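**Backbone shape codes:**
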Amino acid sequence: MLEVAPAYLSDTEAATGVLALLCEQIGEPLEHGIAARRYAISGDRRASARPSLIASPSDAR
């Protein structure tokens, strides 16, 4: 994903550019492509998790 949408591009710039075309070509949702790019940039597995699956501080009670 970084070869297609380098790290210096914002998520918005990457999503509106060639990353959207790549995801369409390979049949992958754009959200998955963005998540894979974030993971490639950060190395943090949480970057590819769905936001709804990440516990919020209020859930820790």
Summary: Residues 52-61 have pLDDT under 50 and may be disordered. The chain has one domain: 1-50.
